[in-house]
Amino acid sequence: MSAVLRARGLGKRYKKRWALQNCDLEVPAGRVVGLVGPNGAGKSTLLKLACGMLTPTAGTIEVCGGRPAAGVEQLAKVGFVAQDTPVYAALSVADHLDFGKRLSPGWDDAEARDRIRRLGLDPKQRAGKLSGGQRAQLALTLGIAKRPELLILDEPVAALDPLARREFMQDLMEAVAEHELSIVLSSHLVSDVERTCDYVIVVVDSQVQVAGDIDDLVAGHYRLTGPRRDMDALPAGQHVITASHTDRQTTLVVRTDTAVHDPSWTVDPLGLEDIVLAYMARPADAVRDTRPALEVVR
Amino acid sequence: MIWLTWRQFRTQAAVMSAAVAALAALLAVTGPHLADLYRTAGSSLVDQVSSSDQTLYYTGLLVVLAVPAVIGMFWGAPLISRELETGTNCLAWNQGVTRTRWLAVKLGVGAVAAMTAAGLTSLAVSWWSSPIDRAVDGGGATDTYFARLDPVAFAARGVVPMAHAAFAFVLGVALGLVIRRTLPAMAATLALYAAVQIAVPIWIRPHLAAADRTTVPIAPDGAPISIQDGAKQIVAHLEDVPGAWVTSQQTLDAAGQPAAVPSSFADCLRTEAGPPTLQQVDRCVADLGALGYQQQVTYQPAGNFWSLQWAETGLYLGLALALTGFCAWWIRRRVT
Description:
Chain A is α/β, with parallel strands linked by helices.
């Protein structure tokens, strides 16, 4: 299995504050990866490290087999659509395509022009006059038409209304199907990720909490409800993500590879949103104690 | 990348070209008449310049002095800070251009344009003003016009405006890169460029070429002198060395050593009320001269104009290159 993104002990510090630390990741190629976490968790930092906009303070990161932004060849392999999808306000839509054509070695001009036509953008319009959704589409077009192996999108739909959001995601998925590219996109909304991604990375408090195939995650997490009890009583192979107790009842979110047989528990399956929320709700210091348990068995 | 840079830059370039062309046309129309006047009048031209030409003389001076500052503020400072503000640098950096090349092309295109604009402006103004400059250097007595070596005129003649523009441009780029916001970067560029333009003539330019030194007697019928600072300082005027730029003055005592003006001079000039009479001043100056006091004047002669021009051009281009290196380092290491 080839990894499109591989990080070892990756960390980035701004002055005194670590924006991301102890990040170990191995993301398989050909996936649509959703990076979720609250605002300020380190999602943007991880993505910028992956496209080479930032250089790591600690550890290493390898993308498509090379150091990010190491040279023109590496730049051609990785596309990046930055947060708020910036475009040159003074340049027209056609100018942007011209710009991509002149700058990107693998530029697919026919595809770019075709996309612009399908999206109904006027090539003569100045990019500064486009709506938020159109601007995002233009930035996406630049990212796709350069024909990267990996396309990274940082909160691409955060500023869009629900309809534009859905259109953008649909369009992105069509491009994935057509060009077999890998995608890593970040969002603070789990619903965006659930609809489009098949792999998820949860980042909270500058740490990667969990990473894995969404189906595996959903199949491996349960909510257990039962009479109040001590958590030490759990069998091996069941890892507690969160626990809450009332006087008489204990509710656990656990990750496990095997079925839960204890008849005193009521076992409920969990959706992706609940799983992500459970990881987000986990106390920050729990991460380091349970590090080995974080690797999701596939 | 050159295409993109040009595409982003062409409006500014067009505005500047139009302004330079308009100025050049105006000067081209009025210039020949001034040259004719110099052919007939020689150095006494300085008394015959029409008031409209005099306005043009000062306008040209101001324009050449302002062009580098304007270029630094409006071309240099926003060049990168605006991209960082709007995030469009991400677009270029992820479209197959390394950031070093991106910077190199932007700096290269901008610096060439800046030097061309400043060079053409200076060429036009220097050509137009050359009859007046020659008249002043040839001994035309005037308080109205500057000698070419005077700090005000020096920066508006010859080749130095090109180097000033290159420096101001790269300074603006570097400040924009560090400050990352357009307006503060523009303000900082103007402030820093002005500071350098004031510091160089005061501390550096006097030493860029070998200065001449002369000692003039202090006497009523000698070189004209001014008495300053409550008669504690004497300044001699070198009327027989036209076009010179006096860089320092020193009073010498009878032994030829640097000395302060003696207090007896101030005592001699003291009056009950009002300023001393001319006869009194002449008598005091004669007394001071009789004590053996002389005035030593260090100056750059008019003939040093071009060696000073080239030396200062080299200095500013060197500064611009150093700033370019700083930008290249900063964009690779510090910009995120």
